[in-house]
Predict the structure.
Amino acid sequence: MKMITQFQAGLNSILLEELRSYENAKKVITRMSIFSGMFIELLDFGGYGLSCCSEFPAQFDESCYRAARKLVIQQLFSNIYDRSQKSRTVNGQLFAAKLIFRDSVPVAVGIVVCPLKQNADDASELLIQLGNFCRYIYTGYSTENPLMHIFPMFCRTCFLIPLLIYRLSLRHCCRHISSDHHWLLHIFR
Amino acid sequence: MLRHLDIDLLRSVILNLIFEHATVEDMFKKVFDLFELPLNYFDTSFKLVANALPCRPFYFDAWESFASNGYASQEEIDNGNYLEYQEKMSSLGRSAIFDTGNCAVYHQACGPVKLNGSLIGYMGTMILDADPDDAIEFNDIMISAIETLARNEHESRLADTSSMVLDISHFIQPNEPSPLEADAFKTQYSAPYVFVVLTAYNASLATLKYVQDLICRSSFSMIGTTWQDSYLYIIKYNCTDRGGKELDTLLNDVAEKYNLYGAVSDMFFSSSQINAHCMHSMEALAVGGLRKRIVGFADLYMDIICMRTLEQHEVKSCVQPEVIKLLSLDPFYCETAKAYAESGGRISETAAKLNIHKNTVLNRIGKINETCQLDLTDKLVAMSFLQQLMLIEASKHLEVK
């Protein structure tokens, strides 16, 4: 049986506690961030309003973070069938992100930022549990969510529908939709 | 040598099962495979929800009975003092070791399972060779997992508007239900209704939960919920027999057996009146709860008014000087005045009631009028006199309390 690290055990304990009295994603993310010492952001475009992030670390430049986030999302969406974690180093920080799927449909992006010296395995573990948490909450919501019907129909060929829904639901302004799939970056600006 | 339980492993396994939305039964199976500790989880009515036993028949009779029948029988519950154990669990609020009485040979870590703060069941882990402290933590983690799974199930049910109304605590709130909610309630539970409140003065939640199931199971037209861990609220719907004895007999039997007190509201016809009738029952319970096991709001209506009056005014300020004077006379004058007023001024009825001659009644009424200037032949004066007597009696009752 796989050894459970101290980090995994602590994270499991927090998640068990938080799921028992779940209120909102922000509370869970904040507790995970305090425990791990990592910055965590969840970008939910599945229509469940889970998007949130932990407190931005003082030592990290926000514009630098946004630029790195843009690049990593671009990397993630370059092949949505590749479910692996993408990582890069930015200003001495490890920047890791992963697509979160529900029923083979990408519904969210989890991003974790931590100092390089911190164990990269912990960041990976956190991203895995972030994905599990999202799927758990999504399943709690009924599959009757109309977005979940629309998304699979269109996303595999064109992301237009989820983008429009994202824009409508968050009143997010997007300048233009380009012909290639890179327009997705606009929604995360 | 006591066996240490790998609590981190348990947490990891449980969390994965929660993420998979596993059932409690699946969770028990997986946990038993890893830790080999027998598990038993039953609801507040002692119906088995899930278990994991290494062999059948299981060596601990109580758990074997759950496994073979799916529940504990009333005889087992009463003779085995089950409610005492459950009361202890519920009051502790977390897992503890049970190693006396029924559990003297088979030590267990047991604790209460709650949903949104309300008791829904009990979870036990047979300790066997495990470290008792580990077993307590183990059982608490199992409870936490059951509560998370139960919460999901509950929320899915709430999302379904047709079953939302099953939770009557929603209708007990002071806010009036929306027309949609009222319609849904009426569809599921037809009028007329009667509201019942039961309580144990020693606040035994486990008993109230058990009684809730007992009452609701024995009658098809009753729904209930506990309130603030101290009261059991029951709504009897389609209540065509309020005038009959069936409900009263059932309530009195249960109250006598489990040392409870209760009150019954008047009949009503709309879910928007639930809150008001809940208040009526609580008032009746507060005023008459110690006199009889089960009291009726209608029977205590005047007492309640008296009590509320006395809360705001001193008894002296509510009683006329004429009545005070009458009370200072020989007690048989007051007795006669009361019987005369209660019989609506009928001399022969008063005489029969007091077992005296009609002329004696006439003489006493005349004497009261002459000495105290209290003309009881005037119906309004007689009514007012009776009300003042009630206030005086109520004030004595309050003093006793």
Summary: Chain A touches chain B through 19 residues (CB under 8 Å). Chain A has seven helices and five strands. Residues 142-189 of chain A have pLDDT under 50 and may be disordered.
